[in-house]
Specification:
Layout: H1 15-29, E1 34-38, H2 45-56, E2 59-63, H3 66-75, E3 80-82, H4 91-96, E4 118-123, E5 126-131, E6 143-144, E7 152-153, H5 162-172, E8 175-179, H6 180-188, E9 201-204, H7 210-218, E10 220-223, H8 224-228, H9 242-263, H10 270-290, E11 295-301, E12 307-314, H11 318-324, E13 329-334, H12 339-346, E14 353-357, E15 370-376, H13 384-400, E16 406-409, H14 413-423, E17 427-429, H15 438-447, E18 453-456, E19 472-475, H16 486-494, H17 496-511, E20 523-528, H18 529-537
Parallel strand pairs: 1-13, 1-14, 2-8, 2-9, 3-8, 9-13, 15-20, 16-18, 16-19, 17-18, 19-20
Antiparallel strand pairs: 4-5, 6-7, 10-12, 11-12
Helix pairs in contact: 1-2, 9-10, 16-17
Length: about 550
């Protein structure tokens, strides 16, 4: 059966979607195990992904943003999502504390991530693993229409854990939807569910984020608070080399093991947190011992010079690429993917990858114009006067759009505060830890009638400011990864092209935050002269769909 026959039933494929799907089918028939798909916003990647998944049998679809998980499940009801424990209230904790379950969602402290899912008890002189009474069994889930778009997996008759209900529904389904963190977690801790993980294909959406997602999952920050929990001090250990950090992890893991044993028979919300922390400590220790030369250690200090944490990060991710991305068929999708750089970063031979690129954006070029003002060339030597010139130009642009909402993308939290101080009360600083999480900030931005301007160092990716939510956006500075991060420094020294490409990817992603459909429009204003120079230098790595808005032939 041709792949196109598996296009989602409620929808009609557009010409570009037909062309891409036919090329994917051809690449599969040609024997390519990995297919890289460079597709601009608006083409409809999710419909393509679902078509391919249905055509190849069973699948995992993985994406970086929860909001994209929601978009998939809203459009395709037969796809079952899997989210982490922090998204669900713990029935057991509510039961134990005699709190009405209707109040659950108002108290995030009683999330599943804080409850006891399992523990060990001595039974007849032997240790036996015990499970929460609300954990369901796989055989208790009713299933209907398996393998069709009418597929539905129900819930057990009895009230059971909401986290495990959705996890088991996803694992039992033909097509399961994960974010990267939950996917990595499920693959690493697969005891008892190995058979359910045998899928025909894996589709990785937002593939430009895979490297950072792996580093975030495999890496670990040992914080002062982590040691304080078990009566230890970070300063008592040598933490500037691998051997010292391994010794610290040994002692810390042993302390957390003692604490989890002490708490295991009590309904104490610390138990699950401590156990999870201990497991992460042990996993990190084994990863470092297995390949110490692939890890960097960085001490982090506060403004007074006090040690606050120690970061552990892998340099190359090739080992984890092979570990997590090992299906028979794999499709990696992004609007900014480049075959040479992606294969180089993921340690995948280029000749094993088919590459499909949509070279024309479906959005009119006049609706997504980019103006390079080249006000100043910013770098680590830039002065306060240089930044003031940038801020003054940004102020003029904001005043021009005095009745419109907009977005300012920065590279540091300090720049956010500087802009808020200098550019007026229309500014809303938006980053984690300020006025709540991004979802709350975005919701308030949607509701207000005022010409609000979001200012953020973290909205380069995964933010959808369609239509009147943003009619202009300002990019202050070329978004090079910070050299304050040791892993970035080491990686950049080994591969300068990687460093430049990371900045290009982020810049291109930033261009698309405010133009989300073919009738949408917004102008992008770029202040830093380094952005124009970077794109010109890296032109061969810039997808063709961006060329018209950049004024290139």
């Amino acid at each position: 059966m041709a792949f196109l026959n598996n296009f989602p039933q409620k929808y009609t494929p557009r010409d570009t979607q037909k062309d891409v799907i036919e090329k994917i089918e051809s690449a599969v028939k040609s024997g390519y195990r990995n297919i890289l798909l460079c597709v601009p916003t608006g083409v409809g990647k999710s419909h393509i992904a679902v078509t391919v998944a249905k055509s190849l049998g069973t699948s995992f679809i993985v994406t970086a943003q929860k909001i994209l998980q929601d978009q998939y499940t809203n459009d395709f009801a037969f796809i079952h999502p899997m989210k982490g424990k922090s998204n669900f209230p713990c029935i057991n904790l509510y039961d134990y504390n005699k709190i009405p379950y209707g109040s659950a969602k108002d108290n995030p402290e009683l999330a599943c991530s804080m409850g006891q899912c399992s523990w060990e008890e001595n039974v007849d002189g032997k240790k036996k693993t015990m499970y929460c009474k609300f954990k369901p069994k796989l055989e208790s889930f009713p299933r209907h229409g398996m393998g069709t778009e009418q597929e539905r997996i129900g819930e057990p008759d009895e009230q059971k854990c909401y986290y495990y209900n959705q996890k088991f529904q996803a694992l039992l389904s033909t097509h399961a939807l994960f974010n990267y963190s939950s996917y990595f977690q499920t693959r690493l801790y697969s005891q008892g569910i190995e058979e359910l993980l045998q899928r025909d294909c894996l589709i990785a959406d937002e593939a430009h984020e895979i490297e950072d997602q792996i580093i975030g999952y495999i890496g670990y920050d040992i914080r002062s608070r982590t040691l304080t929990d078990v009566g230890m001090k970070l300063e008592d250990f040598i933490t500037n080399d691998i051997d010292g950090v391994i010794e610290l992890l040994d002692v810390l893991g042993a302390q957390y093991t003692r604490e989890t044993r002490r708490l295991q028979n009590a309904e104490d919300k610390r138990y699950q947190a401590y156990r999870k922390r201990r497991d992460k400590i042990d996993a990190t220790k084994y990863e470092i011992r297995d390949n110490p030369e692939n890890f960097v250690i960085q001490q982090n200090k506060d403004i007074s010079g006090n040690l606050t944490s120690v970061s552990i990060k892998p340099i190359n991710i090739g080992k984890y690429t092979k570990q997590f991305f090992d299906r028979k068929h794999q499709v990696f999708m992004s609007a900014t993917i480049n075959r040479q750089m992606f294969c180089r970063t993921m340690s995948i031979p280029e000749d094993e990858c088919g590459f499909i690129e949509v070279q024309q954006s479906p959005f009119p070029a006049q609706n997504r114009q980019i103006q390079f003002h080249n006000t100043k060339r910013l770098n680590y030597r830039s002065t306060e006067d240089d930044y003031n010139a940038i801020y003054q130009k940004a102020k003029e642009i904001i005043q021009f759009y005095d009745k419109e909402k907009g977005l300012i993308l920065t590279t540091t939290k300090k720049h956010c505060q500087d802009i808020a101080d200098k550019l007026g009360d229309r500014m809303t600083i938006a980053h984690e830890g300020v006025d709540g999480k991004r979802e709350k900030i975005l919701e308030e931005h949607k509701k207000t009638k005022k010409p609000n301007v979001l200012v953020s160092p973290s909205f380069w990716y995964g933010v959808d400011l369609k239509d009147d939510l943003s009619r202009f956006q300002i990019i202050l500075k070329a978004p090079y990864p910070s050299m304050a991060d040791k892993r970035t420094r080491v990686k950049a020294e080994r591969d300068p092209l990687w460093y430049q490409n990371k900045a290009v990817e982020k810049l291109l992603q930033g261009f698309g935050r405010s133009i989300r459909n073919e009738n949408d429009y917004a102008e992008t204003h770029v202040m830093d002269e380094s952005c124009h120079a970077l794109l010109s230098k890296m032109k061969r790595f810039v997808p063709k769909a961006y060329w018209d808005s950049l004024g290139w032939n």
